[in-house]
Automatic annotation (TrEMBL):
Identification of the protein by name: Endoglucanase
Domain Glycoside hydrolase family per the UniProt entry, residue ranges: 27-481
Reactions that this protein is recorded to catalyse: Endohydrolysis of (1->4)-beta-D-glucosidic linkages in cellulose, lichenin and cereal beta-D-glucans
GO molecular function: cellulase activity
Class in the EC hierarchy, top level: hydrolase
Protein keywords: Carbohydrate metabolism, Cellulose degradation, Glycosidase, Hydrolase, Polysaccharide degradation, Signal
EC number, as in UniProt: 3.2.1.4
Active site residues of this protein: 408, 459, 468
Signal peptide: 1-18
Coiled coil: none
Family that this chain belongs to: Belongs to the glycosyl hydrolase 9 (cellulase E) family.
GO biological process, one term: cellulose catabolic process
Length: 487
């Protein structure tokens, strides 16, 4: 008998969802808003299709100090910085969300692709502006963080930072290669010439990342640390980048590269997080697909390590290692914890899809974990974010009846240029930061850092570890909530 499809499996196990706090309409609403959030993070010249009307054009001269065009891209969180490493990871995860779950996005697929393209267009510029160079940051983090001003009024330094043969950055370069390759898959049918340009650039950037090995945290330490230091090193990104280029191109040389260099990623050591910094768990799940579908024996270990990762997340399984709050939230660390919730939920659903499509199961010691169990666990996490939690509040701005209204976000908390056309200076903006009033501009769809280990959340603008949204929190959520919107 052929293995049941994911949809049939869900129908057979509908009792697991019988007491769900949310319907498919709720998830569809959350999907719409999770994508809309990215419009609030846009840098550069905004298009006529811009829907968050309180935002306006900003940073229109980025790159001019180096005589290159670096206009566009995304502000990473509540500041006005453009950091290359988290932006590239955001782009990769938006692409992966569309690749795996775009079929469930229905009318939102076009908006999801637009969000992806805003990132991939910028990364393409950053990778091709100057031969042998990758631009990885725009803005001075320290001066930016001292100001509280909307991006439309920015007057802090917009210095640019790059990696090169003399100052390598294998981590940020390989992540950029992954993003471009993943995006090329999304646009392969609809825009083949653009897709080919993305893929060729990905190959070039990957070659640069691999040939000139080194961490960008060493080359650009004062600029990128402690904000987005590459704590995990660069070997995980090299394997991640190679895996994505292989999937996009089917070029066997990248498979050979993975087989020859897999040990450098620490495949013998399973790590139980997946983030803008550490790509090991995501790479293993991505490569497990090659084993499950094509039975490439050299990739069997990635299936085993993916099983270990998945089993670590399932409460009560023999290999369970993850910590959960009393309210049931996956808890990895104090700062911006929901980023780990959205990435792990995405991997649970993606691995469930890979397993189910190939009649497989995850082995947790003597016990077997089914794709149904992975889906149920992911759903608990997504539902918690949307409001099924002890605080009875949604951690997505604009979703539900109760959600954060004092988020740590400059553009959201300072009156918009439409309501207050006069410039608000760096220092003058602090009156809005210190205000007890709700943010005047609703950053619809933003997922904040989230509650603490005791399920408590302070709706406090100054408490950035809980109240700051980020693009890399939302990007994997887009794919996860798309799945539930159609089931």
């Amino acid at each position: 008998m052929a293995p049941p499809t994911l949809l049939i499996l869900l129908l057979l196990t509908s009792s697991s969802f019988a007491n769900s706090a949310f319907t498919s309409d709720h998830y569809s609403d959350a999907l719409t808003k999770s994508i809309l959030f990215f419009e609030g993070q846009r840098s550069g010249k905004l298009p006529a299709t811009q829907r968050l009307k309180w935002r306006a054009d900003s940073a229109l001269h980025d790159g001019s100090s180096a005589n290159v065009d670096l206009v566009g891209g995304y502000y990473d969180a509540g500041d006005n910085m453009k950091f290359g490493l988290p932006m590239a990871f955001t782009t990769t995860m938006l692409a992966w969300s569309i690749i795996e779950f775009g079929g469930f996005m229905q009318s939102e697929l076009g908006n999801a692709k637009a969000a992806l393209r805003w990132g991939s267009d910028y990364l393409l510029k950053a990778a091709t502006a100057t031969p042998g160079t990758l631009y990885v940051q725009v803005g001075e983090a320290n001066s930016d963080h001292q100001c509280w001003e909307r991006p439309e009024d920015m007057d802090t330094s917009r210095g640019v930072y790059k990696v090169s043969a003399q100052n390598p950055g294998s981590d940020v370069a390989a992540e950029t290669a992954a993003a471009l390759a993943a995006a090329s898959i999304v646009f392969q049918d609809s825009e083949p010439s653009y897709s080919q340009k993305l893929l060729q650039t990905a190959m070039n950037v990957f070659k640069f990342a691999d040939h000139y090995r080194g961490s960008y945290s060493d080359s650009l330490h004062n600029a990128v640390c402690p904000f987005y230091c590459s704590y995990s090193g660069f070997n995980d990104e090299l394997l991640w980048g190679a895996a994505w280029i292989h999937r996009a191109s089917q070029d066997t040389s990248y498979m050979t590269y993975i087989q020859s260099n897999g040990h450098l990623m620490g495949s013998e050591d399973d790590d139980f997080s997946f983030s803008w910094d550490d790509k090991r768990a995501g790479t293993k799940v991505l490569l497990s697909k090659s084993f499950l579908e094509n039975k490439i024996e050299e990739f069997q270990s990635y299936k085993q390590h993916s099983d270990n990762y998945i089993c670590s997340l399932i409460p009560g399984s023999q290999n369970s290692q993850a910590q959960y709050t009393r309210g049931g939230l996956f808890y990895k660390q104090e700062g911006s914890n929901l980023q780990y919730v959205t990435t792990s939920s995405f991997l649970l659903l993606t691995y469930a899809k890979y397993l189910d499509s190939n009649g497989g199961r995850a082995s947790c010691g003597a016990s077997t974990i089914t794709s149904e169990m992975l889906i149920v666990q992911a759903k608990k996490q997504i539902d918690y974010i949307l409001g099924d939690n002890p605080m009875k509040m949604s951690y997505m701005v604009g979703f539900g009846d109760r959600y954060p209204t004092h988020i740590h976000h400059r553009g959201s908390s300072v009156p918009s240029v439409r309501d207050h056309p006069d410039r608000i200076s760096c220092d003058a903006g602090h009156r809005y930061f210190n205000s007890g009033s709700p943010n005047p501009n609703i950053l619809v769809g933003a997922i904040v850092g989230g509650p603490d280990r005791n399920d408590n959340y302070a709706d406090d603008r100054s408490n950035y570890i809980q109240s700051e949204p980020a693009t890399y929190i939302n990007a994997p959520f887009v794919g996860a909530v798309a799945f539930f919107s159609s089931h």
